[in-house]
Design goal:
single chain; 307 residues; Uridine Diphospho-n-acetylenolpyruvylglucosamine Reductase, domain 2; Uridine Diphospho-n-acetylenolpyruvylglucosamine Reductase, domain 3; Uridine Diphospho-n-acetylenolpyruvylglucosamine Reductase, domain 1; 4-stranded mixed β-sheet; 25% strand; binds flavin-adenine dinucleotide
């Protein structure tokens, strides 16, 4: 068995697209399943809480950091491969640490249809399964066939129909909400062959749509809030007069380009500044419309009792 490297006191801000976050007491990036199991053993011996981090593109990490072990599932666990099934579909298996954009581009290069939406989402496959990430009318649940994961030192594989996929949620998110720590290891997706030129053109079109409508050059975690049924969060925020709004000069601002994104201009805001603005926006929209916006962004570490 390989010897896992566990670092102490690692700043988490570089591992979050919001660019906030104090130190992790312990931090490791396993190179495979053996090291992952070893990391859990380390946490158990030291009675540490564990947090599983992907690309940190949907997390607001506390300024106090995380007083436990952060296990980052990155490119060392991000292999990707494919095989053609007897049914004519192509089955693509991607490790949890594979970037979703790489997965989308890999499928497009093979002329496979249906994963174009993934090209512009800046998370990992693991984070995307956890969140049932989606865009432009498609989501992970539309392409996934099965998911392998580690739970209580046991590797399991379940069908996509057993993953409890819903709008930006999954059985893994539910388990995590109950204090469990399942780790997604890989996803198998099934995709039909299509017209490669059209698929590549569609990927480019979706990327251009993002560039023109989203503040991709400023730190953020994408859409701050979930879409409330029957509404669009960005529209509600705009109607409350909050487009471009900031409470102070910390750097936390409702994006002037897309009201659904709260951004961290120049990366100068603290996580507390950002959370203060998130709460302010949710309260103002509630007061104005009666609609309660629910955070899509996940809080990591201590926020004075919230989490
Ligand atoms: C500019 C921008 C645009 C975005 N656009 C979209 C979009 O169009 N659609 C969309 O759905 N999202 C979007 N997002 C949000 C984000 O990219 C997705 O939610 C993504 O799926 C998160 O993946 P991640 O690897 O970064 O997860 P992280 O942020 O690292 O983690 C998110 C959650 O998943 C858990 N997790 C991560 N990996 C694993 C694993 N291997 N096993 C178990 N749990 C795990 C974490 O514990 C955490 O609770 C956007 C974000 C940004 C910054």
């Amino acid at each position: 068995m390989s010897e896992i490297s566990i670092l102490e006191n690692v700043r988490l801000a570089p591992y979050s697209t919001f660019r906030t976050g104090g130190p992790a007491r312990f931090f490791t990036e396993p190179s495979g399943e053996d090291e992952l199991i070893e990391a859990f053993r380390f946490a158990e011996e030291k009675a540490l809480e564990v947090f599983i981090l992907g690309n940190g593109s949907n997390c607001l990490i506390s300024d106090k950091g995380f007083d436990g072990l952060v296990i980052r599932i990155g490119k060392l666990m991000g292999g990707i491969s494919s095989e053609t099934g007897d049914d004519g579909l192509t089955y693509v298996t991607a490790g949890a640490g594979c970037l979703l954009s790489r997965f989308g581009n890999y499928c497009a290069d093979l002329g496979l249809e249906g994963a174009e939406f993934a090209c512009g989402i800046p998370g990992t496959v693991g984070g995307a399964v956890f969140m049932n990430a989606g865009a432009y009318g498609r989501e992970i649940k539309d392409i996934a066939v099965s998911v392998r994961y580690l739970e209580n030192n046991e590797i399991k594989e379940i069908k996509a129909s057993e993953c409890g996929f819903g709008y930006r949620t999954s059985i893994f998110a539910e388990k995590s909400g109950k204090g469990e720590t399942p780790v997604i290891l890989s996803m198998k997706a099934a995709l039909p062959k299509g017209d490669k030129d059209k698929i590549l053109a569609y990927c480019t079109e979706l990327k251009q749509k993002r560039t023109s409508s989203q503040p991709l050059d400023v730190p953020s975690a994408g859409s701050t809030f979930k879409r409330p049924e029957g509404y669009f969060a960005a529209r509600l925020i705009e109607d409350s007069g909050l487009k471009g709004f900031a409470l102070d000069d910390s750097g936390a601002q409702v994006s002037p380009k897309h009201s659904g994104f709260i951004v961290n201009n120049n990366g100068t805001a603290t996580a507390a500044d950002i959370l203060k603005l998130i709460d302010f926006v949710a309260d103002k929209v509630y007061k104005d419309t009666g609609v309660r916006l629910e955070r899509e962004v996940r809080l990591v570490g201590g926020f004075g009792g919230e989490g």
